Amino acid sequence: MNQEYVHGYETQEAQRLWDQADTLARLLHGDTRFPPRSRVLEAGCGVGAQTLTLARQSPEARFVSIDLSAQSLASAEAAVRSAGVKNVEFQRTDIFALPFAPASFDHVFVCFVLEHLRRPADALVILREMLRPGGTITVIEGDHGSTLFHPEGADARAAIECQVELQRRAQGNALIGRQLYPLLIDAGFSAPRVSPRIAYADASRPQWLEGFTRRTFIAMIEGVRERAISEGLIAPQRFDAGLHQLRLTTKADGVFCYTFFKAVAVRPVDG
Fold first, then answer.
1. H-type helices in 33-153, by residue range?
2. pLDDT tens, 213-256?
3. Does a structural domain hold residue 271?
4. pTM of the shown model
5. Which of 84, 95, 132, 239 has the fewest CB atoms nearer than 10 Å to its CB?
6. How confident is the model at residue 6 (pLDDT cuts 50, 70, 90)?
């Protein structure tokens, strides 16, 4: 895979991922359960922010969680062991060079991974081969083009676009959420079911305002400031004005809305 992770691997980014996972757990994973004794491949586990939720919700399933980053895997394993969760094993490997035999898993889970891959369609084909016929894949991705907020601000839009462009330059796609259905069809899966999951925050929902608007989305945009400026995408004054406008959405009259897309599809029994 050897793909650049546009957000980096600093401690601040790891904390943002945990904040994001905590806030979005019910929205994204509330309906995710795997049967007892099933074998689940979590492809691209990162720091384990999703792993804990998955393993706790399906305590009798067995998870194999993989990632290319040794640093992220160490963090994930430490978090899982510290929580006393015992149904997860970790392995450092590349999605494009998996060491497992075909049809080794009953289910595959992929969350916030395809957006960082230069060849997401090929990755899905490889993951399909890991599934037994009739097994399922669950894929979750965001889409920065779905961002809505009040008060509206052109500088805020420009700052968000910097993140989208930086991810594009890293050969990823921050707008991939809207493409899950065709990607899964093209990869040979059947019966994809895609559901939008809307993260909405205003002053009446303080946990979302803090956990998602401030500590997840704005923190993500703030994290690309130096790189966006150094690559000449935006002037420092305009980026900072954009951050200021985004922070206004956390005030008493502010609103922030973002859509994630969750897809579940099946490996055909004859495919």
1. 51-57, 70-82, 120-130
2. 999 999 999 999 999 999 999 999 999 999 999 999 999 999 99
3. no
4. 0.92
5. 84
6. very low
Residue 4 lies in a domain: no
The DSSP letter of residue 58 is S
Residue 260 DSSP symbol? E
Q: What is the pLDDT of residues 24-45, one digit of tens each?
A: 889 999 999 999 999 999 999 9
Q: How many domains does the chain have?
A: 1
Q: Which alpha helices (DSSP H) does the chain contain, by range?
A: 11-29, 51-57, 70-82, 120-130, 154-169, 180-186, 206-208, 219-223, 225-230, 236-248
Q: How many residues does the chain have?
A: 271
Q: Which residues form the domain of 68? A: 11-266
Are the CB atoms for 262 and 123 separated by under 8 Å? Answer: no
> Which residue bears the tokens 């805020």?
156
In degrees, rounded to 5, the angle at the alpha carbon of residue 197 between the alpha carbons of residues 152 and 257 is 10
Cα 110 from Cα 141, distance rounded (Å): 9
